[in-house]
Amino acid sequence: MTTAPPAARAADPAGPAPAAAITPTFRANVRRRRIWIVFGVVLVVGAVLLLVLRGGAGGAGLRLGADNPAPLGAKALVEVLGAHGVDVTTADDFDTALTAAKSGATVLLFDEFGLLDEQRLGRLAMFADRLVVVEPGFTALEALAPGVRLAGAASGALDDVACDLPAAERAGALSTGQRLFTIDEEAVADGWAGCFRDGEYGYALATGPSSGDGRLVLVGATTPFENGRITERGNAALAIGLAGASDELVWYLPGPLDAAPDQAPTLGELTPGWVSPALALAVVVTIAAGIWRGRRFGPLVVENLPVHVPAGETSVGRARLYARSAARTHALDQLRLGAIARIASALRLPRTSDVAEIAAAAAASTGRDPGRVRAVLVDALPSGDHDLVRLASELDELERAVRATLAPETSAPQASAPQASAPQDADHPGRRP
Question: Quick one: CA torsion of 416, 418, 421, 422, rounded to 10 degrees?
Answer without folding.
Answer: -100
